[in-house]
Amino acid sequence: MPRDYYEVLGVGRDADEGQIKKSFRRLARELHPDQNPDNPEAEDRFKELAEAYEVLSDRDRRRLYDSYGHDGLRGGGYSPNFDGGSFSDLFSAFFGGGGFDAAFGRGRAAGADVAVGVDIDLEEAAEGASVEVSFDAPVRCHTCNGNGATPGTPIVTCERCGGQGRLQAISRTPFGQVARTIACDVCDGAGRVPEEPCTTCRGAGLVQETQTLSVDIPAGIEDGQRIRLSGRGGINSPSGPPGDLYLTVRIRPDERFVRDGDHLITVLDVPFALAALGATLSVDTLDGEHDVEIVPGTQSGEVITLREKGMPRLRGGRRGDLRVVVNPVTPRKLDRKQRELLERFSESLHDGNDAAEESMLAKLRRLVSRA
C-alpha cells in the first residue's frame, strides 16, 4: 500500500498550495538521484515524492484523495504517468527545462570545460616532463571587469523582470498546466543590465582569449591518457567559476622501441656468425646503452629480458622490462673469400650441428599461445 501522500511531502492535511510546492522543492533537492548516487532507494523515493506532488497539487485529485484515499484515486482512473520517464523529464514538467541544476538556480555555476592535446616523446613519458599548452577559452572581460558596462556608466534594474532575475511561465505538461520559474532572457538571471554595454565584450562580460599554461606530465603516462586540471578551463558567466582543462597526451612513435603496457620491446640485429659463436653486444635502453650476452647458437626470435629497463609505472612500483628480440642477420653480398669459407663451413656440417632444440611446429604453437 502506498504511503500517505501528506506524510511523503511532510505537510499537514490543511497545507495550502504554496506550502505543498515549497515542501516538494525542498525534498526534491534532497532526494534527487543525482544527489544520491550511492543510495539505491533514491530513485523510488523520488518517484514517490513526485507522485504525491502530482496528486496534492491538483485540486480535484486532492479532493478525491482526501475523501477516499488511494482506492478512490484508482477508482477514479488515476495512475502515475511518469514511471517510464527520466528524471530530467520530471524536472522539466515541474520547474521547466534545464534539468536538476537549472531547477535550483545552479545552471550558471558550471564553467566551460576545455580539451586540448599535446605530443611528447617516449623519453618524456618515461621521465615525466613539463609542457606548455595554449588554448582559447572565455574569460572575464578586462575592460569592464565582467559587469558588461562601459567603465564609468551605471548598471540599472532590468525592466523585463523588474530586477527579480526570474520570469513566470505557464506550460502544458503530462501533469496538466504547470507554473514554472525561468531565468530572465534579458539579464540572464542577474536582475540588472548595463545602461551602456561595454564595447569590448558587447555587454556579455566575457571575451575569448588565448591562454598558455605549463602542465606537468607524470612519468609512466600512456598514449591517449587524459589529465584533468580542475578550474583551469574557461567560464560561462562573469560571476561563475571556471571549468576544467582536459589534456590528452599523445606519445610520438619511437623507432627503437614498441611499448607493451609498462614493458618495452626492441630488436637487436646480430650478424649470423656471432649468433652462432656467441658475443657480447650493446643495445639501446631508455637509460643509455646496455650490454647483453648472446649465447652461442642463439636462434632468430629468441628474447633476452632486461629487468626493470622498461617504462615506470604511473602509480609507482617496479619498472617494466625491456624485451630484446634477437634477429640474426644474413649478409646479402659476399666476396670470393667469404664465399669460399662459407662453402667449406657448409661442407663440414653434420646432423648434430643444425639439430634444433625446439621444432618449428612447437615454436608456432608457442607463438600462437602468446597471442
Per CATH, the superfamily of the largest domain is Urease metallochaperone UreE, N-terminal domain
User: What is the gyration radius calculated from CA atoms?
Assistant: 36 Å
- At the third CATH level, what is the topology name of the largest domain? HSP40/DNAj peptide-binding domain
Specify the number of helices.
Answer: 10
Give the tally of structural domains: 4
Distance between the termini: 58 Å
- The helix-strand sequence is HHHHHHEHEEEEEEEEEEHEEEEHH
Strand content: 25-35%
Biggest sheet layout: 4 strands, mixed
CATH architecture of the largest domain: Sandwich
Structural class: alpha+beta
What does this structure look like?
The chain is α+β, with helices and mostly antiparallel strands. It has four domains: 5-103, Helix Hairpins, CATH 1.10.287; 108-149 and 202-253, Sandwich (HSP40/DNAj peptide-binding domain); 155-194, no CATH class; 258-370, Sandwich (HSP40/DNAj peptide-binding domain). It is built from ten helices and 15 strands. The chain has helices at residues 5-9, 17-31, 42-56, 59-75, 87-95, 99-103, 122-127, 272-277, 336-348, 360-370; strands at residues 114-120, 129-140, 155-157, 166-173, 176-183, 192-194, 206-217, 226-229, 245-251, 258-260, 263-271, 279-285, 288-294, 303-306, 322-329. Strands 10-11-15-14 form a four-stranded mixed β-sheet. Strands 1-9-8 form a three-stranded mixed β-sheet. Strand 12 (279-285) and strand 13 form a beta hairpin. It starts with a helix and ends with a helix. 20% of the residues are buried. Mean pLDDT is 82; it is low at 82-89 and 95-109.
